[in-house]
Amino acid sequence: MALIVQKFGGTSVGSPERIRNVANRVLREKARGNQVVVVVSAMSGETDRLLKLAREMHRQPPERELDMLISTGEQVTVALLAMGLEALGHPARSYTGAQVAIQTDSVFTKARITNIDEHRIRADLDAGRVVVVAGFQGVDSEGNITTLGRGGSDTTAVAIAAALQADECHIYTDVDGVYTTDPRVEPRARRLDRITFEEMLEMASLGAKVLQTRSVEFAGKYNIPVRVLSSFEEGPGTLVTCEEVNMEEAKVSGIAFNRNEAKITMIGVPDCPGIAYAILGPVSKASINVDMIIQNVSEQGKTDFTFTLDKSDFDKAMEIVKRTGTELGAEKVEGDCRVGKLSIVGVGMRSHAGIASTMFETLARENINIQMISTSEIKISVVVDEKYLELAVRALHEAFGLHQGNN
Amino acid sequence: MALIVQKFGGTSVGSPERIRNVANRVLREKARGNQVVVVVSAMSGETDRLLKLAREMHRQPPERELDMLISTGEQVTVALLAMGLEALGHPARSYTGAQVAIQTDSVFTKARITNIDEHRIRADLDAGRVVVVAGFQGVDSEGNITTLGRGGSDTTAVAIAAALQADECHIYTDVDGVYTTDPRVEPRARRLDRITFEEMLEMASLGAKVLQTRSVEFAGKYNIPVRVLSSFEEGPGTLVTCEEVNMEEAKVSGIAFNRNEAKITMIGVPDCPGIAYAILGPVSKASINVDMIIQNVSEQGKTDFTFTLDKSDFDKAMEIVKRTGTELGAEKVEGDCRVGKLSIVGVGMRSHAGIASTMFETLARENINIQMISTSEIKISVVVDEKYLELAVRALHEAFGLHQGNN
């Protein structure tokens, strides 16, 4: 008998009919002889409805009260799902985050889980019940209701799986797994049977938005195997797990890309301590998130400093950086919002030489100029003209044999 | 500085606009220098919306899950009201029933309050905050969410007022107080400035549905003055309080009546021990509530036994009682569903003779036949042909000078 934690998002529980489908899916897992804990989000549309009410009361609603309000969304879903399971003849019990003691800090609207008391859930499981827990929410040390921020239900599921030492955590989504790249760009993109936590992190934070980044970090930290599955069709999905020996075969697991990048370069700025902070400090103060940061070796005491950011922040950031450039005595500030970023990701890179050169050779053959390069242990990212982005993805998918299923 | 508990029902908080009105009213009470705790119900329509969802999941939803579901209604309102108060520049904090430890038994959907821990509320009040508490809900000893059943928010308000030893509990409704009788029947009916708990209980349970009976019992038990006020207009309302010396003046405070009565009589039944149970046992087993019960002295070992009940249960009850009549050897069973009940209520009756004779004389003068009479310490009830009910109300209102304001 295995213990499985299942998580269903807002679309999967968007109507009584869909909640009934979820109930059936839960009971199929039970029928395999497993114990099941289900984590659910608010019905799709419900959180927006509540936020609209909040904005009618207050232009900037107090965050404690916002959490009090929107946490009702998941509470409705857990009760309805428990009813649905009971209607199918199976004992079930629903819980809010507070009731199963999902302890968090007090950072309302984006709290972090600090502890979960698994005793109550365990007792219900031992009594043969399905346990239905509200995702996205917790309770702070003073008993205030908190919410975990965007994608928080994934994190709830993984955290409960960790607390219960579950065998697997199943995240049901609208895709049937993690792909080597976006199938809309490369039709031969292939579903991966498995991927490591680290690769998943690189894939997810780079735009393959299947799993919430924090939930993957959590899963990696506590080594909880996470399976990404489709809510709508049957299939094995993709297992996200820790690195295993037989995974060494795969040099590159997937290609992530992001069209929404822009880059800004400060040219000929004096290369002295504190220069990076002098440039990025004002940007960060304006609440603009920076992605890649590159500074090459300096010549004659001067250096060029480049960073990328979201296209939507480009104009605002250019203005700030130009002002900083003048203050710092930079030669000039240049920007380009017609770029895209592409990354090849794979734990195999660690032990396989030549991955980078294959990448660069492939891009050269297609006549695609590489504007920036940045690497980490398991990924190589390049920035190219956005018009070549999709061509680059397809060429690299081919070059690394990703559609052939070496994974 | 007084401590006031205010309670607003579903209609008063039915939209963001109305919740803003409530916020303004709360702050007017604060502006008088008082501390305020506000208890609110779910927005009107919300509970029905949730019950509809529940019925789509389960024909007879499990009651624990039903409470989990519908308790979200009040949780939404408290958060929105706290936002509304903050938007007006006043610190406020919302709480669920569980958070302020409104302990109840575990009888889901109709739980009873066993204890309230006032410390958290007190701390917020001392910090100058308005405290907004979800009505209608509590938490049992195992941490399950419970609801208090019909009119439960009134009970929450009174229970909190008792726990905090509040100076007054204000119940805002769609009427501006308690009247001597229904103004739709007697246009000269007058708002009472004050009424005792006992009178209020008799008035309420007899059909003047302003306050929930349980909340009045609670208020009487802990001696919490309750003021019935209008949500929509200013005014002093009616103060429900314990008996005071100056109330002795009022012989009769009001006239309650109920059109929905029917009566059933078993004639010539052997007068022996256990006969009342033999007749009413089967009725009660069929979940039929009985109102008045009258048995007169017996003649020659035989007696007549009469009871009244709701018109809607008449046919079902007649069938049962006829069967019982045959078993018991009664002469016959008669029924009439065209009757009405009328009661004059007043603590003054205790010390004033002649109230009953004035009542009977008045009805005789109007040629209204009295079919049944039943009395308690502070009320006299009669059953008459339903077509004379309104005439009787008006005649008695006049006879006892109720429109003249001796109260």
TrEMBL record, chains A, B:
Residues 264-338, 344-407 form the ACT domain. The keyword Transcription regulation does not apply. InterPro entries: AceGlu_kinase-like_sf, ACT-like_dom_sf, ACT_Aspartokinase, ACT_dom, AKii-LysC-BS, Asp/Glu/Uridylate_kinase, Asp_kin_monofn, Asp_kinase. CDD domains: AAK_AKii-LysC-BS, ACT_AKii-LysC-BS-like_1, ACT_AKii-LysC-BS-like_2. It is an enzyme of class 2 (transferase). Its EC number is 2.7.2.4. Keywords: Amino-acid biosynthesis, ATP-binding, Kinase, Lysine biosynthesis, Nucleotide-binding, Transferase. It comes from the Bacteria. It catalyses: L-aspartate + ATP = 4-phospho-L-aspartate + ADP. Transmembrane segments: none annotated. Pathway: Amino-acid biosynthesis; L-threonine biosynthesis; L-threonine from L-aspartate: step 1/5; Amino-acid biosynthesis; L-methionine biosynthesis via de novo pathway; L-homoserine from L-aspartate: step 1/3; Amino-acid biosynthesis; L-lysine biosynthesis via DAP pathway; (S)-tetrahydrodipicolinate from L-aspartate: step 1/4. GO terms for molecular function: aspartate kinase activity. The keyword ATP-binding applies. Belongs to the aspartokinase family. This is Aspartokinase. It comes from Thermithiobacillus plumbiphilus.
